[in-house]
Design goal:
Layout lengths: L1 H6 L3 E7 L8 H28 L4 E7 L2 H11 L4 E6 L8 H8 L3 E6 L12
Parallel strand pairs: 1-2, 3-4
Helix pairs in contact: 3-4
Length: 124
């Protein structure tokens, strides 16, 4: 956030959800979809609140699909100069952050070990 503030650059926070499995039936699917959308909205609202407190212009988007593909498409579509993606330990499957770094076609920063958003170095 400090870098965005110094450069007067906007930030777009993106939450990508894969979507619940449809084979479980409509009621289960709808409950899971509602829960996933609420979680995504909470995450984005927290990020937007932190950005606002830091005086940074920001917006949030919820996307659906494969995270690596959707983040890469979104960055290209917005002509993003820099992509910052979080990293978390994975037991199985491919790393989303690694996939974005390889496929984005632009600078990518992988933030490791960040559990919550914090504004560092900004006066309140």
């Amino acid at each position: 956030m400090n870098l965005a503030g110094e450069l007067d650059a906007p930030i777009v926070f993106v939450h990508v959800r894969r979507g619940p499995a449809g084979f479980l039936g409509a009621p289960v699917y709808q409950r899971r979809l509602t829960a996933e959308m609420a979680r995504g909205r909470r995450v984005l609202d927290e990020a937007l609140e932190v950005a606002g407190a830091a005086g940074v212009n920001a917006e949030g988007e919820i996307l659906e699909g494969a995270p690596r593909r959707r983040i890469t498409e979104f960055a290209r579509g917005r002509n993003a100069r820099l992509v910052v993606v979080g990293s978390r330990p994975r037991k199985l499957g491919r790393s989303v952050s690694r996939g974005v770094a390889h496929a984005a076609g632009r600078s990518v920063v992988v933030a490791q070990g960040v559990r919550r958003l914090e504004v560092v170095g900004k006066a309140a």
